[in-house]
Design goal:
With 294 residues, the protein is α/β, with parallel strands linked by helices. It contains 12 helices and 10 strands. The radius of gyration is 18 Å and the shape is globular.
Length: 294
């Protein structure tokens, strides 16, 4: 099995030395892979070519991707396949709960493809997964990384009523680059989803993330962080964009570790409760650490 970081090299450019990651397929990694495949589940770790797959699976953590492996959108940064997805699997919530129990997870992260073909965007399925995990693992915290549900407050309310501990929705990039990066999504809509989540459940932690290296300026990064704080976002992730293939959005540049550090310092000054800002950070990387942040 090749390393996802090898699959993510952009335009033949050599990865900077801070991207050197040792990939492993030993021990717990194989157990997790076997459990996921045995339960016929998908993970964003695999589908999105996450560079942290080896580390996370070796530590018995994974991010479950529900509602299939085919997305109804075609964001230019994303490696997930696009097409016509199958109907939701009614047994999937229980299988996700089984996997979480089998991995002995204390914090479960669940995401999905975008399902614009469904009337509720998949919100009811998210709620069913949250409740299945709660029933099986009552002391485990649950984080959901949701699509925008096309801005539907009703769909979002279905998810919030299921009481996730963290509601995550990524803004992904700065305002100016939204259409180039994710043509079927909108910056203001994403901010609206995060605002509505706080309105519906003020005590639920909200989270968002963005990638850098697609052509934004530092002033635009700061503007995005301020916009996220203005709608009450508590938790933040910032990571380096890595091009999944030559068909995807070109890489503009690599940020240095010092630049990520500076972004993290700014974010904390703006009031984010927890910030993960580093080259290999992804939306659910070390997500359990953010849940206990105060």
């Amino acid at each position: 099995m090749s390393s996802p970081i090898e699959q993510s090299q952009a335009n033949g450019q050599r990865l900077p030395e801070w991207f050197r990651v040792r990939f492993t397929d030993q021990g717990d990694f194989r157990d997790v892979r076997g459990l996921i495949k045995g339960l016929r589940l998908h993970t964003v770790c695999e589908e999105a070519h996450c560079p942290n797959l080896g580390e996370c699976w070796s530590h018995r953590t994974a991010t479950f991707m529900i509602l299939g492996e085919i997305c109804t959108r075609a964001c230019r940064f994303c490696a997930v396949a696009t097409g016509r997805p199958a109907p939701p699997d009614p047994d999937e919530p229980e299988r996700v709960a089984d996997a979480a129990a089998g991995m002995n997870l204390r914090h479960v992260v669940v995401t999905s493809v975008a399902r614009d073909d469904l009337p509720d965007g998949g919100a009811g399925h998210f709620a069913a997964v949250i409740r299945a995990i709660r029933s099986r693992l009552p002391d485990t915290t649950v984080e959901v990384l949701i699509p925008d549900f096309q801005g539907s407050r009703e769909s979002l309310a279905v998810v919030m009523d299921a009481q996730p501990d963290v509601l995550n929705h990524n803004v992904e990039t700065v305002r100016r680059l939204q259409r180039a990066v994710r043509a079927k999504a909108f910056y203001e809509r994403s901010l609206g989803v995060l605002r509505m989540a706080k309105e519906l459940e003020p005590d639920t932690a909200t989270k968002s993330g963005m990638m850098v290296g697609v052509g934004e300026t530092m002033d635009e990064v700061e503007e995005t962080l301020r916009d996220l704080r203005a709608v009450g976002v508590d938790l933040l992730t910032v990571g380096q964009y890595l091009r999944p293939s030559e068909k995807h959005l070109p890489l503009a540049r690599y940020y240095t570790p010092d630049e990520f550090l500076a972004i993290g310092v700014l974010a904390r000054q703006l009031g984010f409760r927890h910030v993960a800002s580093a080259p290999l950070v992804r939306s659910s990387y070390h997500a359990h650490e953010a849940v206990t942040a105060r």
